[in-house]
Amino acid sequence: MMTEVTYKVLWVDDDETIVASTLQDAEDYNLELVHFTNWQDAEVALRKHFQEYSAVILDANCKIHRDSIEEEEFITAILPSLLSIFSEKRQLLPWYLLSAGTMSNFESIVKGARYQHSSHESEWGNMLYLKDAVDGSDNSSARLFENIQRVAKDMATNIVLYRHRDVFAYLGENHIIDYQARVLMRRMLSALYYPEKNIKYEYAGNPIRKVVEYVFRAARKYGLLAEECFDKKDHIVLLDASRYMAGLNINYYEGREVKGQIRWGNPGSAKDGAGGDSIFPSDIAMIVKNALNYSSADSHTEEETPYFIEEENKELFFSYVMQICHLIKWFGNYVEKHSDIEKNKSMKKYINSQSETVKEKKSEPIKLSKGDIIGKTFLIQKNNGVSVCGSYKLSDELQNRTGAVTIEDVIDNDGADKDLYSYIITEIK
Q1: Which of 31, 166, 215, 409 makes an SS bond possible with 427, Cβ 3.0 to 4.6 Å?
Q2: Is residue 160 part of a domain?
Q3: Domain that holds residue 413
Q4: In total, how many domains does the chain have?
């Protein structure tokens, strides 16, 4: 049975006598209060984990700095900083005051804060709640928690979180797949459900490819992806990674020299090892392959190349987003069932370069004629740091090109890697 969603709320209050009871009361409303005694520490956490929070609760009389004393002007002092964060993140979080209300200038402080809050009260509800109010009254902490729960359920990102809670169960800090993948999936799914607000969001690199890369990095962490699928700069060799987890043989190198092949488990009867053991079933392997072919070739997880969801391509883009949801659910479930890292690592099998498999491949090379290649369109991929189209290497002058290209001319490869790449592509369009 699916569990209820828990919403994180950032809470700033330096009254330690109420912390334990307030945290417990909030749990009854599926709220996880993340408590801070001062704004200095709270601000750092909010900036770092903004997407994880559904609301903010502030005391009216609190400490601004970690080592300072309570300040009656606390709200007046920190509100500009809070609003600045909203501006930077291009997203609002509902915020509220939970206070004892005993300060001498309490009314004037509340009046100033309400001016900033009032334009959103129709969606967020009342701003002010009192710590000592009778339970059930309109300004009690119970009503505050009830209100936050209601608002959080209606927020776009939290609706996404609820609809795809079986996906997000595997994403985030201390989860199977990295927190950054969680952020990307929330943004993409929010853009799907709320295009009027989110279409054309700018991303640093293609987010679909980035999420697939985070899945691969998680696979490495759990011993499901060989180190040979990463280059010296720790970039993922995506073609090798997808083939390895699909149960196909891949080359491993010393420098640029092919030393042999590796695979997951025992090979099948096909030359590439197909039909044997694999991690990915055929449908998951196809999702990964198609997603990588669709997304740009050089959008690694650490790159900053701008990417936008374009209106004319949104249907295709979001079809892959939904497939990635399925991939994440499948992979998370697989890791839960195969959590023995050392056992997973032991499944990596070496196929010696002198084995019959490799000999057969070398004795009967499949080489198309130049006429069969010219005019064909390929997506440029990276293979061990080399730009390739299919089984053919781009010339040195074309190594920086990316995307889908049509081959216009090739020459025979007489270099040291001729067994690996029979032709060198010299002209593309």
Answers
A1: 409
A2: no
A3: 365-428
A4: 3
Residues 145 and 224 in one domain: no
Judge if 141 and 174 occupy the same domain.
Answer: no
Query: H/E element holding 350?
Result: strand 348-352
Helices (H) and strands (E) in the chain, counts: 17, 18
What are the distances in angstroms from CA 330 to CA 137, 215, 225?
Answer: 46, 11, 16
* Domain-embedded: residue 159: no
* CA distances in angstroms from 324 to 2, 103, 108, 170, 319, listed in the order given: 20, 52, 51, 13, 9
Query: Residue 287 corresponds to which tokens in the numbers above?
Result: 């999702």
Within 13 A of 27's CA, how many CA atoms are on the CB side?
A: 6
Same-domain pairing of 215 and 126: no
* Tens place of pLDDT per residue across the chain (429 aa): 345 678 999 999 998 889 999 999 999 999 999 999 999 999 999 999 998 899 999 998 899 999 888 777 899 899 999 999 988 887 788 999 998 877 778 888 888 888 888 777 878 889 999 988 887 788 899 999 999 999 888 777 767 877 898 999 899 877 899 988 988 998 889 888 887 655 566 666 788 999 999 999 999 999 999 999 998 889 999 999 999 999 999 998 877 788 889 999 999 988 899 999 999 999 999 999 999 988 864 444 555 567 777 777 788 889 999 999 999 999 999 999 999 999 999 999 998 644 444 333 333 444 577 877 888 877 777 777 788 887 788 998 898 887 777 889 999 988 888 877 888 999 988
Tokens of 309: 């969801």
Residue 427 bridge partners (DSSP): 409
Q: Which long-range contacts (CB under 8 A, 24 or more apart) does 114-118 make?
A: 116/79, 116/83
> Minimal CA–CA distance to 141: which of 149, 157, 129, 152?
129
Q: Is residue 104 part of a domain?
A: yes
Residues 315 and 402 in one domain: no
In terms of domains, do 278 and 354 share one?
A: yes
**Which helix (H) or strand (E) covers residue 161, if one does?**
helix 156-163
Pair (21, 117) in one structural domain: yes
Q: Same structural domain for residues 129 and 39?
A: yes
